[in-house]
Amino acid sequence: MGRSSFERAAGVWLALATALSAGCGTADKPERFTNSVGMVMVRIHAPAAPRPGEPALDYYLSTTEVTNEQYERFKGKHREQRAPSSAGDTHPATMVSHNEARDFVTWLSAREGRPYQLPSEREWQWAAQAGARRLQHATSDGSIAHDLANYAGTGGRDRYEDAAPVGSFPPNPLGLFDMSGNVWEWCDDWYYEEAVPQRVWMRSELLPSLDIPFFWYGLRRKWRVLRGGSFRHAEPLQRVDVRNAYTPGRQSPSWGFRVAVRVSDRAD
Ligand SMILES: [Ca+2]
């Protein structure tokens, strides 16, 4: 039986799209794409498991934190709830709880026809540290300086006492912006102290002018993870291995999020 003209046309289109796709991506799994709300999604691979016994990673991550303008396509009334410290259209959307961020990715999945979600901690950290390069900070060279990221204090490129418009600093080697600094980012995971046995650094709500690290122990399924530090916090909290966590209904002017799409099957 001969192929219909439609099938032939579709085949030609597919071959053309495949030939035009960059790098090792394919037409349906390009190395990068831009979705309908303007988010640039970059594909990230971990060909071998970062740690023994763990599955390989293959996913897309948005190159920037979700902005107010992007979030308000979903929730228009957030415009009246923008934090003064992050009030512009291209500033990161803050005052968004983990629960609301999950609602956003559910909405985005239906709109885009792809399974958007918050990144897992593994996905977040692998991307932030530039994969096997294992940078200590998610900056262009792995160091931390005011020319490279937005954290407490100012200097050089960092003229921001508050949040900066997303992408105001150079990206890390994977092309990802602001994974160290600007705003903390919700991850999908519950906080398990035993998963990554490290200290959780918490800012004192009672003494906000002091960056006192608090060590919390015994946290279990009631807290969701935040990663990456923020404009309100000093250098030690901008490291890619620092974990923060809070209850999923809580909002803060220094908490935002970015989105991920997991590729269902392995690329290699
Ligand atoms: Ca950030």
| Ligand identities | calcium ion
- Order of helix and strand elements from N to C terminus: HEEEHHEHEEEEEEE
Number of helices: 4
- Oligomer type: single chain
Taking pLDDT < 50 over at least 5 consecutive residues as the criterion, the unreliable ranges are: 1-23, 194-201, 211-220
What do we call the CATH topology? paralog of FGE (formylglycine-generating enzyme)
Determine the mean pLDDT. Answer: 83
Using DSSP, what is the number of strands?
11
Task: Please list the strands of the largest sheet in the order they lie side by side.
Answer: 1-2-3-11-4
* Helical residue percent band: 10-25%
Evaluate the radius of gyration: 19 Å
Features:
single chain, 268 residues, paralog of FGE (formylglycine-generating enzyme), 5-stranded antiparallel beta sheet, 4-stranded mixed beta sheet, 17% helix, binds calcium ion
What does this structure look like?
The protein is α+β, with helices and mostly antiparallel strands. It has a single domain, classed as paralog of FGE (formylglycine-generating enzyme) (Alpha-Beta Complex). The strands form three sheets. It has a five-stranded antiparallel β-sheet. A four-stranded mixed β-sheet has the order 9-8-5-10. It is globular and about 40 Å long. The chain starts with a helix and ends in a 6-residue tail after the last strand. The N terminus is likely disordered. The chain binds calcium ion.
